[in-house]
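User: My collaborator sent over this chain with a note saying "see what the structure looks like." That's all I know about it. Can you take a look?
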Amino acid sequence: MSRRVSLLLTVALATISALPASAQTTAAAGGRIATFDGAGANAWAGNIRVSDEELVALLEEGVRRSPTFKALTERLSKSDVIVYVRPDVTAKSNTPTRLTFLSARGGFRYLVVRVQAGSSKQQQIAALGHEMQHAASIADASSVVDSQSLRKEFERIGKVSSASVGDDFSFESTIAEEIKRRILSEVASDSGRSAAKVATTR
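Assistant: Without extra context I'll predict from the sequence alone. Here is the result:
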């Protein structure tokens, strides 16, 4: 997953500044809130905010089918990290999900996760869980307040590699990889149980 700092940060700062004080309450109530780019969004949860109904359904399915995924959403809901989840429609099939640190403002830290849109639901749920684990690691590290401190933290807990262009970098951690495998296993097991239940009721 790549951390990309560009125009996103500037847009995020301007938009987050414009968010009303009631944004958190609206999200918790399941209403519509402003995303980092100013467009309307479905508030799936107070700290996890998505850009379309398809991702709402994906998150709900992840919570229903994977205890690990559900635990991550609950963990993030009690943190100061706000995660915007968006589909990455331009990503190629071998492109990983991406996490971007946007800003730290008003007592919250804002991240964006882009989920590869062309993969299966199981892969998307696992990939999203993988990124939520990274978000949880950021939530646990109060020192992470910008891209530079993000890099320093992942140099400490994981593996960071520099890209060939600009100052972008990729990072990974053993625990996030394990979380991804665990969620895939849980979702696959749930699929097996559902299929068996259908066969039994016929």
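A starting point for your reply to your collaborator: The radius of gyration is 17 Å.
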